[in-house]
Amino acid sequence: MARLRLVTLGITALLAAACGPGGASGGPTAGAGTQAPSTAADTAAPTADACANPATKTAGKLTVATDNPAFPPYFEGKEGGNTDPWDPDWGDPNSGKGFESAMAYAIADQMGFDQAAVTWIPVAFNTSFAPGPKDFDFFIGQVTYNEQRAANADLSDGYYFGNQTVVTLKKNQFANATTLTALKGARLGAQVGTTSLATIEDVIQTTAEAKVYNTTDDAIEAMQNGQIDGVVVDLPTAGFITTVQVEDSKIVGQIGTDAGAEPEHFSLVLEQGSALTACANQAIGALSDDGTLDVLSGQYLPFNSAPELEP
């Protein structure tokens, strides 16, 4: 598949084409009232002084990591071309645009770091929550909280709450499915190590073995080539796929709690026992309380009108 070169015009068209915030019930939210506990359950609240001048990997700097390529709508490309080493066809975290790029800078600001003090590094998704020391202060990249990941790293409070979603081509035989039962015979794929993959195996429980891909982009290409019937991704990614990336594709439906899925939220990943975890949670709490999370999710992730699949 020819990769889409991300430009500002493309994102503008995406946001114009997508529904605005406040769509059908069951959609995701980044707002207050849904805050989930971090994995450092007994972490004491930080003192104001500790979070005003937190200890980081590099003094005076905040090192933030994400996967490369960095995909929209979480990261937008940089006007004039992406900086090295970020894939030129996709997003550049340094742009400050896209939900997670903007979120990272908002969290940094809460911690006392201006934009110039933030350094981005590429780290593979699966590596981010693997056991051991980290080269970053925090990783942001659609990491859904689960207990297995939390056993090896600190996962912050949630900054986005939403559902896994099934996407197919409109011509596919499963495109009009309304229940998980109707999807049992579908060949579905997802990125390795994701809760999307676990959703295929543990919630949909397809009769065909789930297909595993190194990236979501690889899974999408397999869908376009007819090697699989569809992909499972988070709702915002599904919105981007169907409104910008893949012509004649559609969202079949979200997989919510009524269909047997566990509630999901995205967390920052920090080194296990990091002194920054409590400060990250404090920053996320402040951004939730002042409405910033809702503003950013409404701006970049306006994909909350997809129907929910029945069991």
Description:
The protein is of the alpha/beta class and 311 residues long. It has 2 domains: 44-159 and 267-300, 3-Layer(aba) Sandwich (D-Maltodextrin-Binding Protein, domain 2), CATH 3.40.190.10; 162-259, Periplasmic binding protein-like II (D-Maltodextrin-Binding Protein, domain 2), CATH 3.40.190. The protein is built from 10 helices and 12 strands.
Describe the structure in brief.
The chain has 311 residues and is α/β, with parallel strands linked by helices. Helices cover 28% and strands 15% of the residues. Strands 8-7-9-6-10 form a 5-stranded mixed beta sheet.
Keywords:
single chain; 311 residues; alpha/beta; D-Maltodextrin-Binding Protein, domain 2; 10 helices; 12 strands; disordered N terminus
Sheet-strand content, in percent, reads 15-25%
Give the neighbour order of strands across the main sheet. Answer: 8-7-9-6-10
Q: Biggest sheet, in brief?
A: 5 strands, mixed
Write down the CATH topology of the largest domain.
D-Maltodextrin-Binding Protein, domain 2
The parts where pLDDT drops under 50 for at least 5 residues are 1-29, 31-44
Tell me the series of helices and strands, N- to C-terminal. Answer: HHEHEHEHEEEEHEHEHEEEHH
Q: What is the CATH architecture assignment of the largest domain?
A: 3-Layer(aba) Sandwich
Write the layout of secondary structure elements.
Layout: H1 8-17, H2 48-52, E1 62-66, H3 99-110, E2 118-122, H4 125-128, E3 138-139, H5 147-150, E4 154-155, E5 160-162, E6 164-169, E7 188-191, H6 195-204, E8 211-213, H7 216-224, E9 230-234, H8 235-245, E10 249-255, E11 264-266, E12 269-270, H9 276-289, H10 292-300
Parallel strand pairs: 1-2, 1-3, 7-8, 7-9
Antiparallel strand pairs: 4-12, 5-11, 6-9, 6-10
Helix pairs in contact: 3-9, 3-10
